[in-house]
Structure formats: structure tokens, C-alpha cells
Automatic annotation (TrEMBL):
Similarity comment: Belongs to the UPF0145 family.
UniProt name for this protein: Uncharacterized conserved protein YbjQ, UPF0145 family
SUPFAM superfamilies the record matches: YbjQ-like
Top-rank taxon, per record: Bacteria
Length: 269
């Protein structure tokens, strides 16, 4: 998997491998997170990242559809594939380190001065290795990835669950422009705008369904820490990206049951 990594990245990561002459880990975990990850039975190996600079093409809205709600599929595919490229390269760096997973993953995007439609997508996190061998890799034989904090990661492991992968779904949606008569007719009134309600509802549902499909492909039991974000980036007020993202998880044992603490009542004086 190293063929898609920069030579400088490969050299840096090889110097961090546990069998290197002077092994040294790097991490963006806070001190508390670092200690909790260690207490959960994992040791940091190194900071890993992936990047993808992507030209996001413009898909014009035909005049007849200017007043219709519709997904802008070209932009949806661009935003998804760009993040996927960044994630794949981050996973490749973790694989080169011999990591079992990556914790504290952040997905960021930045617009640069290369052009109005050129965006850099960055995935970064801390590669970790389990102290004890276990089924930590997912069913695609890839290191697990998770955007959980060090505290949440510790809690998840202590509860008998393992992260599988950061899963996401996205939808770029054009929200219909209202006709002038409808705008004027609602002046001074408190009233729902059904076409806007339906557009935002549909777009979020598409993003959620795509995230769930990724988790099902991994045979996950569920998704934790789900975040729903909305951005319009530079497309204007009527075109927005809806992003659903979370960590797919599974129990470490098929017969696992979370033990609930017993409630202890105070004795009557």
C-alpha cells in the first residue's frame, strides 16, 4: 500500500517503526487522551495523515430545474471521493507502521489560492498498536479508524466493543429558489416553507443512508458518535453539503453483554 505515499512520508514512518534503532512516537493526543489510550492497552506509534487536493467541478443547474429541489450528484461524488482518497492514504501510513488502528481521526478541508474550485482534504490521526494480539482489524483487513476522543475510545474498549472504521455519507443538494409570488405572499407571516423543509430532510436522509450502508458493509453492530454537519462551502446559499460521519463498532465477543452497575440504596437510619 506504500505506492501512493510520498517518499518523505515513507522514510519518516520507517524511522518510527518499533524495530527501528531509535523508535519514537508522535501523536496529536492530549496528555489525558494519551494516558487513557495506554490504559486501554494500546500504545501510540506515530502521527499519520493523508491528503488529497481535488478540483471540485461545477455542475450547472438547468434553468428548468432552478426552482426544483435536486441532488447535485457531480459535487456529491467529488466531496466523497476526495475524503476517501485522504482516508485511504492515512490508512496506508498506519499500515506501514504495522498499526492495528488509528484513533482521534480528524477530517478537514481547506480552500487554497490555487483556484476557487480547488480544495485540500486532509485526514489525520494517531496510529496505535495493541499490547495484546486481538481481532482489531476490520473485515477488509485494514487498521480500524475512529474519530472518538481518547476518553471515549477507552470507554468503548472497557465496555467490550471495538471500533471498525470511520464511516460517512454525503449529499450535495440544490435547494429550490422560491418564486417571487410565493415570497411576497408570505411577507409578515409565520408559516412553514414546505419545499425547504422537504429539501433539507431529503438531503440529510440521503447522507444518513449512505453512512449506514458503509457500516453494514463492515458488518458493524452500530455507529457511535454520529455528527451531522451542513456546509455550503463556496457554492452559494442554495447549494449545500450534508455530511454524516461516525464510528462503526462491533462487540469483541459474539456473546458479549455489558454489565450494568447495581444500584445501592442507602440504609435507613
Amino acid at each position: 500500500m506504500t505506492h501512493d505515499l510520498a517518499a518523505a512520508a515513507v522514510e519518516r514512518l520507517r524511522s518510527l517503526r518499533p524495530n527501528a534503532d531509535t523508535p519514537l512516537f508522535t501523536s496529536d493526543l492530549s496528555v489525558n487522551e494519551f494516558l487513557l489510550v495506554r490504559e486501554a492497552g494500546f500504545r501510540p506509534l506515530g502521527l499519520v495523515l493523508g491528503t488529497s487536493i481535488y478540483h471540485v467541478g461545477i455542475q450547472g443547474i438547468q434553468l428548468g430545474r432552478w426552482s426544483k429541489n435536486m441532488e447535485v450528484t457531480q459535487l456529491t461524488e467529488a466531496m466523497y471521493h476526495a475524503r476517501e482518497h485522504a482516508m485511504t492514504r492515512m490508512e496506508a501510513e498506519a499500515d506501514l507502521l504495522g498499526a492495528d488502528g488509528v484513533v482521534g481521526v480528524r477530517l478537514e478541508l481547506e480552500f487554497h489560492e490555487f483556484g476557487d474550485n480547488i480544495v485540500e482534504f486532509v485526514a489525520v490521526g494517531t496510529a496505535v498498536k495493541a499490547e495484546e494480539p486481538g481481532p482489531w482489524r476490520n473485515n477488509k483487513n485494514q487498521p480500524f479508524t475512529s474519530d472518538l476522543s481518547g476518553q471515549d475510545f477507552w470507554t468503548l474498549i472497557r465496555a467490550g466493543y471495538a471500533p471498525l472504521s470511520l464511516v460517512m455519507g454525503t449529499c450535495v443538494y440544490h435547494v429550490a429558489h422560491r418564486r417571487l409570488g410565493a415570497v411576497l405572499g408570505n411577507l409578515g407571516q409565520n408559516i412553514e416553507i414546505p419545499e425547504y423543509t422537504q429539501a433539507l430532510y431529503d438531503a440529510r436522509e440521503l447522507a444518513m443512508a449512505r453512512m449506514q450502508a458503509e457500516a453494514q458493509e463492515l458488518e458493524a453492530e452500530g455507529i457511535v458518535g454520529v455528527v451531522l454537519d451542513t456546509h455550503n462551502h463556496r457554492w452559494g446559499s442554495h447549494t449545500m453539503e450534508f455530511l454524516a460521519i461516525g464510528t462503526a463498532v462491533r462487540p469483541l465477543r459474539p456473546d458479549h453483554i455489558i454489565e450494568r452497575p447495581q444500584l445501592v440504596l442507602p440504609l435507613d437510619g
